[in-house]
Specification:
Helix content is 30%, strand content 31%. The protein is of the alpha+beta class and 127 residues long. The chain has a domain of 33 residues. The strands form 2 sheets. It has a 3-stranded mixed β-sheet, with no helix packed on it. A 3-stranded antiparallel β-sheet has the order 3-4-5. The longest helix is centred in the middle third of the chain and has 20 residues. GO terms for molecular function: DNA binding. It comes from Kaistella chaponensis. This is DNA-binding protein, histone-like, putative. InterPro entries: HU-HIG, IHF-like_DNA-bd_dom_sf.
Length: 127
């Protein structure tokens, strides 16, 4: 299935005085749930959907705990997750503490398999 996109009129943030231009905007369509993943895995193996769901739930709980503990989680050639964030600037290193952290986010880095899949992706303009 191709990736769907639409045309969106936007200002170039690097050149705000230039006229607006149309840009391709990727549209997320549909969703894949944990249950969908387990159902697919069950259909291609001898393991039941319930067993696969239990393994996936356990695996993703461990991933979440490790990211929250500051670990970089490598999920094979699929992806890497780690915590990142931003903080308020202060004058000295001694002033840097947990209260200077403004936000925390998840950094997702696709691995080789995902990058290769996206290289082969097809695109379809939404009418």
């Amino acid at each position: 299935m191709p990736i769907t996109f639409s045309a969106v009129l936007r200002r170039n943030p690097q050149r705000p005085t230039e006229p607006l231009k149309y840009y391709a905007n990727i549209i997320g369509e549909g969703k894949t749930t944990l249950s969908d993943l387990a159902k697919h895995a069950a259909s291609t193996s001898t393991v039941s959907k319930a067993d696969i769901l239990a393994v996936l739930e356990s695996t993703f709980t461990k991933i979440a705990d490790d990211v929250a503990d500051g670990r970089i989680v490598y999920v094979g050639e699929y992806f890497t997750l780690q915590a990142g964030g931003s903080s308020t600037g202060v004058a000295t290193a001694a002033e840097v503490n947990a209260t200077t952290i403004k936000s925390v986010r998840t950094i997702f880095r696709p691995g080789k398999m995902i990058k290769d899949a996206l290289k082969l992706a097809e695109f379809h303009k939404k009418s």
